[in-house]
Design brief:
Shape: elongated
Order of helices and strands: HHHHEEEHEHEHEHEH
CATH superfamily of the largest domain: HUPs
Radius of gyration: 20 Å
Strand order of the largest sheet: 5-4-1-6-7
CATH class of the largest domain: Alpha Beta
Oligomer: single chain
Number of strands: 7
CATH topology of the largest domain: Rossmann fold
């Protein structure tokens, strides 16, 4: 049993280090290191009560995170042509920047999905969201705009906000930017990563938007930390953001 836990802890730590090296630096990556440390502590502690608490915690957490992943993915849509026909705007949610200046892999996948639909449906305009994080040199939406321009999207079809720092602000600032203009914005083709769509949809509907979801597929290597981070973000949304 102890050997198994040591091996599992080592794998979790090495996996976390790999994630950090390739630029996946969300809170889920650091949670894996914390959980690995807890497992190692359970191996070396002489207190059987603490050891049992750690084991029970891990069993319950695995059950919970598996159920949460099922909820996130049960209605995922990677294509939504009918939603594109009914929408006023494509709204792309920001996903952080790599090395502070380049689209992250998740951001690029979201952008590629949006570019694909903009080329298929010329009646649609796109709204890009995402401000400048403390480790970023420019706002996420500005980098996305440059990517869209390079991929042949007319600048007159691109709108953006560059101040948001959360999913809640992504949606709120989208509405704030357009509600006083003579532009229809209520129906949106919402593009974000598959693991993030459930929370993004709830947030958008909280602001009375009609949402047609369109997911980009996340990379397999980042699935676990993304789900671990998303559960905490979901709890924060329910507790604080949608008050």
């Amino acid at each position: 049993m102890n050997i198994t836990l040591k091996i599992l802890s080592a794998v979790m730590i090495l996996y976390s280090i790999l994630l950090l090296i390739i630029g996946i630096r969300n809170f889920g990556s650091f949670l894996l290191i914390i959980f690995a440390a807890l497992l190692l502590f359970s191996v070396y502690t002489q207190n059987s009560g603490i050891r049992n608490i750690i084991y029970i915690f891990f069993i319950l957490y695995i059950i919970f995170i598996s159920f949460f992943a099922f909820i996130l993915y049960r209605n995922v849509k990677y294509e939504n042509p009918s939603g594109a026909q009914k929408s006023d705007f494509i709204v792309v949610l920001g996903s952080g920047l790599r090395y502070g200046a380049y689209l992250s892999p998740e951001g690029k996948r979201r952008s590629d999905k949006a570019v694909e639909y903009l080329k298929k449906y010329p009646h649609l305009n796109v709204f890009l969201t995402g401000g400048q994080g403390i480790d970023e040199k420019v706002p996420e939406s500005v980098v996305m705009k440059e990517y869209f321009l390079k991929n042949g999207i007319d600048k007159n079809r691109i709108f953006l906000e560059n101040k948001s720092a959360s999913t809640n602000e992504n949606i709120k600032f989208y509405i704030d930017a357009l509600k006083d203009k003579d532009i229809e914005y209520q129906n949106i083709l919402l593009i974000t990563s598959d693991f993030h769509m459930f929370r993004a949809e709830i947030t958008a509907r909280h602001y009375n938007l009609t949402v047609y979801p369109l997911c980009s597929k996340t990379r397999n290597i980042s699935f676990i930390p993304n789900i671990m981070r998303e559960e905490l973000a979901f709890i924060k949304m329910l507790a604080l953001d949608l008050k």
